[in-house]
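Reopening this one. Same input as before:
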Amino acid sequence: MKLNSKIIALISNLFLLIIFNFYHYFTYGILDIVELLISITLGIILLWLILKYDNIKLYSKQCQEKEHNLNFIFNNIDAAIWSVNLKTDEVLISRGFEKLCGFSNQKFKNVSNFWKQIIHPDDLKLLNREKDKLLSGEIISLEYRIICKDNKVCWVKSNITPNLNSNGDVYEFNGIMVDITDRKKIEKEIIETTKRYNSIFEQNPDAVFTINSEGNIMRVNHICEKISGYNKEELLNMNSDELVISTDLDKVNQHFNETLSGKTEIFECTIIHKDGHHIKLSLKYFPLIVDEEIVGICGIGRDITKHKDMEEKINYMAYHDTLTDLPNRNLLNKLLEEFIVDTTEEQQKLAILFIDLDRFKMINDTIGHDIGDMVLQQAAERLIKSTRKDDIVARFGGDEFIVGMKDINRGEVDKVAQRIIDEFSNPFIVDNYEVFTTPSIGISLYPNNADNVERLIKYADIAMYSVKESGKNDYQFFNYNLDEKLSRKVELEKGLRKALANNEFTLRYQPQINIVTGKIIGVEALLRWKHPQLGNISPGEFIPIAEETGLIKSIGEWVLKTACKQNKAWQNSGLPPICMAVNVSKQQFHSEDFVDMVTQVLESTQLNPKYLELEITENSMYKIEHLIPTLNQLKDIGIKIAIDDFGTGYSSLSILNRLPIDNLKIDQNFIHNIVNNSNKAALTKTIINMGIDLNFNVTAEGVETYEQKLFLTENQCNIGQGYLFAHPLLPEKIKNILNKSNLSSYSKIE
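Same output, byte for byte:
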């Protein structure tokens, strides 16, 4: 060890002094005790100093090294470290602080309030609230915002430590700050996401809930409470299975397990409300995932009870008759198809009973449709009463019903048919009316008559019409010997009921010619019908059916309106006006509203009445006294009246002068034989002369040969109609002829 030279000299002198005193004592016997003790003491002190010198020097060096290390750490660590002396306001900041804030240590020199320089103004109150704790020496931890360079705001977490002097007073604050801006951003996003989630959860118009993997309900919104009737606390103590009806449990659990496997499931189920009634729900299940693990499901449910009830009601209405509540055609066909399948598998027989109420149209026409509807309702009840428990009773339409019977024999069908007839033998008492109607029943059998529903109904219908033809109020089984004409008649009647709605009718127009001048003076509108399956049907075949069924009234009105509209269209196109002749059926002419209907047609088509001629068959005049007022009303309007098919009906020559008519049309049967049959020729001459004498126009129908035309001109019948001149033509062809003003010859117009 190396000692300072002065210290060495001092120590040497002290040792010499001590040696000198001992020498002096042993030589001269004289010793200065005080001086000796002082010397020894100084020697000991010097010796202790010599021993401690190196330790002091080593400690000083270590302190310098520690200070150097602390300065190195302070200036190089990324953490933002600061220190504020409360007496001097001296601020020390680390390089990490400078890096965080963007400010150097120089910014804070000679600054009296470090806090206001760095902490966001809105967060200073946080520090003020903790001020007392700091001054009492307590270490605090705060999160707040600081304002960095360029006014950038950062979030930091800061631990602040107060330093106390020997008196216990705080003289300095030291702190360390950690940048938590990113964490705060994430926390904010989490908070916002949570708020959105909670908003979606709580404000959702549907029921939203979570269920753990055991099926226990973990969370619900208020809609869950509203739908189920249970409050939140009750629901959170329940398993979801407790709410589901027993018949839906397996289905719900299957969807639950599928969702736990990672799938999204959409389905419907029924739950039990707290008060016991059922609620139909539409549900969507999707997995509830936490840390990439499925821990349960999240469900969204919507109350579809009203929707499903309405759907069921609509479905019921689609398959049931609204008046009688019986199955309608749609359900009937479905049930009969099922009957056929069952019957085939069990090798049984099936019977179809087609029932039509006799004279039901008369009930509607005389008493009213309201009474008729009530009769139909009571008829449905009687049919149910007359049939077996498992039989089908359906309303086929109008006053037609169908009964389906399976697992039958001929005798059982006879019994049911007869029970129906017997049941209808009693009058219907409806709204103080006593109404009578009887059933006509046609029966077909499976597999005897047909192997499908459509044909079975068709054959039963044909059998029913056979009953109608033979007197009504009876039943008959279908057999292939039934008149084919009846089958066709049935089909035509069915078609006629739809023909108007399906636009199957058209009109052709046959010119009426002035034989002398060759000019067209009028046309007759002739009805044509093209059946969608049977093709063109002769008027001689379908007109009687239309009259028999009462359909002729609506068909006749359509003919009149269409013909008047066409005549007005020709006039509007600039063609010379001609008269339009339209046939009127007996039923039309005898109806009370006939004149009103004709008037409305003329008003709606804007046709001048003088260009309309109504042809009334002679057979319609069997109650001539009752018809004269109607004819006079029509004449007063300005309409022309013609007697069609004259010579074949009831009219008496003696009363012709009383009828306000304009034209006699000679039946074509007379015209066909006037050349070879002298009697027909004589009668034709008589009719022509009578018409001339009464100032009527006389028109010959069915003129087909030049010889017939010559006979007519020789006998002063100047108007002809027939194939010699033209077939019934389309409107465009008539327009072309009218444009030519007259006919150049009497060859047939094509």
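So the earlier flakiness isn't reproducible anymore. For the record, The first strand starts at residue 80 and ends at 85.
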